[in-house]
Design a protein that fits this description.
Elements: H1 34-46, E1 59-64, H2 70-81, E2 85-90, E3 98-99, E4 112-113, H3 114-123, E5 127-131, H4 139-143, H5 146-154, E6 159-161, H6 169-182, E7 189-194, H7 204-213, E8 219-223, H8 232-235, E9 239-241, H9 244-248, E10 253-257, H10 281-284, E11 291-293, H11 306-309, H12 316-336
Parallel strand pairs: 1-2, 1-5, 3-4, 5-6, 7-8, 7-10, 8-9, 10-11
Helix pairs in contact: 1-12, 2-12, 6-7, 6-12
Bound molecules: phosphoric acid mono(formamide)ester (CP).
């Protein structure tokens, strides 16, 4: 899917028909052929300003329902590299509070409905990025992605996820680019480990990472305490190992992340804060001199010790840097279809 119809894209990626061009991007699986996508990303990384004309007179509107550092800055930088104008809206700071439920009597402190706000936003831009985390109020609503899907339905513009309720595909693409750059063997062993955190976090990053690794032929192990099983629709072929130390044995990459419970009545709950699950040097010593990865922000000495995150094996900064490459590759593809 990637790389078609872009004026200056890598020649090898120019094959294919126009109707395959990406319009919306909400899941890493929409990349299609992963090796082509990684090749397209490599080209973008080596030629960051090659497509400045592609975004000329085009406006990206970035809408944040939740806080961000990396996604905000990297996506804006990616758009600027493509010559785009960028508008950023923090929905909860300075905008009218938005009602999201249809059919409610609007007598609360939310004076504007998303169903008017979305098409209005669509009038002011050419592409929309949306960050809207799981609310943990209703699992069905979260897993049906009601917020981002309303943007897709009502904005009239291409929409991409800057982390939605169940997935964070721009992060996953950056993770896959980073693994591709650092892997020492063709089929590395990737271990995604749960680690403790004081707040209930969504499953979007681990869901999406699992979805991405399942697009490769890498060995894939997920380790977490019992009760933290993710939706099998995302974990797919991953082997689940409840003994974290056993899971770490021979690993080439340790991908740490906290998530709250997914299953049943425990959805969105914290079941464990045991710091025996913190990634430390003793556990890293069980690995094949593995690289350490985390999407950031990270709680030091909860998720990972200072020693590990500051070690030469820590990839958290190159991983964050690749967020520009990830966003630019996707934006380039979307712009190619306008
Ligand atoms: N990894 C990530 O998405 O970071 P932000 O929440 O800061 O955007």
């Amino acid at each position: 899917m990637l790389g078609k119809n872009s004026p200056t894209c890598h020649p090898e990626l120019d094959e294919g028909s126009k109707n395959e061009i990406m319009r919306h991007f909400t899941s890493i699986t929409q990349l299609g052929d992963l090796s082509k996508a990684l090749e397209a990303a490599k080209y973008v990384k080596e030629n960051p300003f090659a497509d400045q004309e592609l975004g000329r007179n085009k406006t990206l509107l970035m809408i944040f329902f939740n806080s961000s550092l990396r996604t905000r800055l990297s996506t804006q930088k990616a758009a600027m590299n493509l010559g785009m104008n960028v508008i950023v809206l923090d929905v909860n700071q300075g905008a009218w509070r938005l009602e999201t439920e249809r059919g409610v009597i609007m007598d609360s402190d939310r004076p504007e409905h998303l169903l008017e706000a979305i098409p209005v936003m669509g009038c002011y831009c050419d592409v929309i990025g949306v960050r809207a985390f799981a609310k943990f109020e209703n699992k069905e609503d979260d897993y049906n992605e009601v917020i981002i899907n309303q943007f897709i339905k009502y904005s009239g513009k291409p929409v991409f996820s800057m982390e939605a309720a169940t997935r964070h595909p721009l992060q996953t693409f950056a993770d896959l680019i980073t693994i591709e750059e650092y892997k020492k063997v063709e089929k590395p062993k990737i271990v995604m480990t749960w680690a403790p955190h004081p707040k209930a976090l969504p499953q979007a990053v681990p869901n999406s990472f699992a979805e991405g690794i399942n697009m490769t032929d890498y060995e894939f192990v997920i380790t977490h305490p019992r009760g933290y099983e993710l939706d099998p629709a995302f974990t797919g072929r991953a082997r689940i190992e409840y003994d974290q130390r056993k899971a770490f044995e021979g690993a080439d990459f340790i991908y740490a992340k906290n998530w709250s419970a997914y299953s049943g009545d425990n959805y969105g709950k914290i079941l464990c804060t045991d710091r025996d699950w913190t990634v430390d040097a003793e556990k890293m010593a069980l690995t094949n001199n593995a690289y350490f990865m985390h999407c950031l922000p990270v709680r030091r000495n909860m998720i990972v010790t200072d020693e590990v995150i500051e070690s030469p094996q820590s990839l958290v900064i190159p991983e964050a840097a690749n967020r520009v490459v990830s966003a630019q590759t996707i934006l380039k593809e979307i712009l190619g279809g306008l």
